[in-house]
Specification:
alpha+beta, Thiol Ester Dehydrase, Chain A, two-stranded antiparallel sheet, about 35% strand
């Protein structure tokens, strides 16, 4: 399962060298991640309503080529793991050439809001949402 978003890099995301500041890559990942979670109706508001929050516990970015002001990029989020955690891979491409610019991943775990306990297995609600989505293929 995957989702893809298009982003036009705004001026406020670049540094004095006209290259996207490294911290903004995670923001681009987040935008793609939300598009992915929307596909199976389990984005952050639905997570909270189901009694869980899913904090990011790990992130990794491999900067292959710098992204610049006004560059149009495609950010793809790919659901890789969901049984015990959400592991999502990301690929960032130049929208015009298709050249891969960046890759990375994030890992999130479920935490029960009421008990504040980390779940060692993803809660059933995640599986229900994935199973309800007709396009889901494990």
């Amino acid at each position: 399962m995957q989702a893809e978003v298009m982003i036009d890099v705004p001026f406020h995301d670049v540094d004095s060298m006209n290259v996207v500041w490294h911290g903004h890559y995670l923001k681009y990942f987040e935008i793609a991640r939300c598009a992915l979670l929307d596909q199976f109706n389990y984005n952050y508001m639905q997570m909270k309503a189901s009694g869980y929050v899913w904090p990011v516990i790990e992130s990794h970015v491999r900067y292959v080529y710098g992204i610049e002001f006004q560059q149009k990029i495609r950010v793809r989020a790919i659901l890789k793991e969901w049984e015990n955690r959400l592991k999502i891979d990301y690929l960032v491409f130049d929208a015009e050439t298709g050249k891969r610019l960046t890759k990375g991943y994030t890992t999130q775990v479920a935490v029960n809001i009421q008990s504040r306990e980390l779940c060692l297995q993803s809660p059933q609600v995640l599986f229900d949402c994935l199973n309800a989505w007709t396009g889901f293929q494990p």
